[in-house]
Amino acid sequence: MEYLPINCEISPDGGILDKYNSVYGWVPSSYNIRCDDATQTKKNDEITEMREKWDSPEDFISFRIFNDNFEVNSKTGLFRAILNKRQPILKSKTQPLDWLNDIVFRQNDFPYGGLTCNHWVLWYRTASCPPCRSIINDDLKKKLMEFKGLNDPSTLQEYVSFIWYENPKRNSLSQHFHVQVFWIDH
């Protein structure tokens, strides 16, 4: 059997996902990397509402994901986000964001259908300079540790297994960088 590493980024290619799924049954396969019909309808309804009520997708995501305040734009009559703090700047692709709370780890509002694992999203407030892969992995481990109430990073793999990837069909609704995360408790 081929060794397939976990607790890291993997390719979202259907063939790769199928290999992982055959070894780790909780990893999504090429057959369950889309929302079911009911979830897709909910997603479409939210997109329609967002387009009708918000100045931009970025404003909506800033409010919904990063809990920024909002106001009505007097010129458009639509909602716009009021950033709770200045925008973080990545000094380079190998240095993390200035504030950990500009990274949000939360359940996916529109999870893929038929999964046997948790489907969450790791969101970054920035889009202009996505973090390097090792930073994303480290940030994800920190967020999982926070969520599980763990203090010792060396114990994380005793409690959780995960994989993540950047969606190859990254939608243009938001310029906020984010990755899909799939994880299980042990």
Structure in a nutshell:
The chain has 186 residues and is an alpha+beta fold.
Structure description:
This protein is α+β, with helices and mostly antiparallel strands and 186 residues long. It has a domain at 8-31 and 87-185. Helix content is 30%, strand content 19%. It is built from five helices and seven strands; from the N terminus they run E-H-H-H-E-E-E-E-H-H-E-E. The chain has helices at 14-23, 37-53, 57-64, 133-148, 156-159, and strands at residues 8-9, 69-72, 79-82, 103-107, 118-124, 160-165, 178-185. The chain has a five-stranded mixed sheet with strand order 1-6-7-5-4. Strand 2 (69-72) and strand 3 (79-82) form a beta hairpin. The mean pLDDT is 87.
Class computed from helices, strands and strand pairing: alpha+beta
Q: Helix amount, in percent? A: 25-40%
Number of strand segments: 7
**N- to C-terminal distance:** 22 Å
